[in-house]
Amino acid sequence: xxxxxxxxxxxxxxxxxxxxxxxxxxxxxxxxxxxxxxxxxxxxxxxxxxxxxxxxxxxxxxxxxxxxxxxxxxxxxxxxxxxxxxxxxxxxxxxxxxxxxxxxxxxxxxxxxxxxxxxxxxxxxxxxxxxxxxxxxxxxxxxxxxxxxxxxxxxxxxxxxxxxxxx
Length: 167
What we know:
This protein is mainly α. The chain has helices at about 1-25, 30, 50-70, 80-100, 105-125, 130-135, 140-155. The mean pLDDT is about 90. Its main location: membrane.
């Protein structure tokens, strides 16, 4: 029982690790570069992002724990559902350094489009395993939709920024 608690906490915290590292690495680029980009009127305030990602990462992490538990751990039948989840998590973590540090809007757009597909694939693979886990990803998918639209708009509206930052 105590061990399952540790797994629950571990899976729930895991997405936050990459999110925190992404914030830490890119925190100086936000006021210097991001604030100067042309953004649509519906772009969320900078203050919304940490709260949103805390909620989303917590839901994602707990959902991955439910899938892991229902599939009996890291067995072969967990390879695809947890592999898709892990792949989308890696792309999720890769987006901030690509966007903020490299300032590569085109690659960030490609990353988030692939991320969208992997997140949808994750949800589809989880649906038959655990519907609650799948539902926990719905807010994440909604936020990704907004983030994808925002990335597209920033890419289109800032043509001088479309390629990686010059040295």
